[in-house]
Amino acid sequence: MLITDPTKKLSFNRCISDGDLVIVYERHDIMKAVKVCENSVLQNRFGVFKHSDWIGKPFGSKVFSDKGGFVYLLAPTPELWTLVLSHRTQILYIADISFVIMYLEIVPGCLVLESGTGSGSLTTSLARAVAPTGHVYTFDFHEQRAASAREDFERTGISSLVTVGVRDIQGEGFPDDFVGMADSVFLDLPQPWLAIPSAGRMLKQDGILCSFSPCIEQVQRSCETLRSNFTDIRTFEVLLRTYEVREWKTDCSKVDEGGSVGFPPCKRRQPSNERSVQDNPSSLQVMARPSAESRGHTGYLTFARLKCLS
Questions:
Q1: Residue 176, annotated as binding a ligand
Q2: Which terminus of the chain is less hemmed in, N or C, by CB atoms within 10 Å?
Q3: Which CATH number fits domain 3-76: 3.40.640.10, 3.30.230.30, 3.40.50.1820, 3.10.330.20?
Q4: Is residue 120 a known part of a binding site?
Q5: Region labeled Disordered — which residues (predicted)?
Q6: pLDDT tens-digit profile of 217-267?
Q7: Residue 177 DSSP class
Q8: Closest to 49 (Cα-Cα) out of 78, 70, 31
Q9: pLDDT of residue 295
Q10: Domain 80-239+297-306, what architecture?
Q11: Burial of 6 (0-12, 13-18, 19+ CB in 10 A)
């Protein structure tokens, strides 16, 4: 969770207070962000939950409804916020975000420029990476989208680390106020090659730029532009494959003569005693298989380092 004070130093408040944002966790694919209000209630399939029962409890607590159902109250970390935020645009997910922060060499104290802001998924993680003394300046050409992102950053407690601007970076470039000051620049634009010359002017010597593009044609044109002032140009595609690990109870008496039980091979748990499978007609087995909901291609990440003048 990111709760910041006016001096831009992170402070960690581990107990829930009236007005806090919490992530209500029902299961791994059902979560929602809820603002705590003492007189409010949350209703879901598990029953009615009073917010007043949440106040004073530490984040991570298990709370019960009037029907005995329960949920967990989690802190709004950047990882969880990415999973529950409103999708005003296509967002970056955890695999791409972690890769971006690593390759942009972002550490506390960095000044980072971003365009466009979109739903603010990446911005939230960038803010935590530069905290407590760094800052993220993010720009979006869409005024309403920028205003919504600004409200979200207030809710998640990172507004002192992020400044949201309304600007057409493709057409106007970044503000001259940042010339030679940025440690890193991130571009998520339809035509990033139009903003690359301006981004190069903003970067410090040896600074790094990253451009996210869903299509390889965008990557090719961006790389052509990057070659004039950048070096170490590399493009990556991050593919994440998740697995489900479950226990299955099988009837070993149905094993045919060839030894098949009618499902894919799996690793058998070692029984607590020395009896053979034939002596144990039902057995717990562990099966691992790819998740049916695995996310495939999201986009291409192109990184480049500004050439040194000397």
A1: no
A2: C
A3: 3.10.330.20
A4: yes
A5: 263-283
A6: 999 999 999 999 999 999 999 988 888 888 887 665 555 555 444 445 544
A7: G
A8: 70
A9: 65
A10: 3-Layer(aba) Sandwich (3.40)
A11: exposed
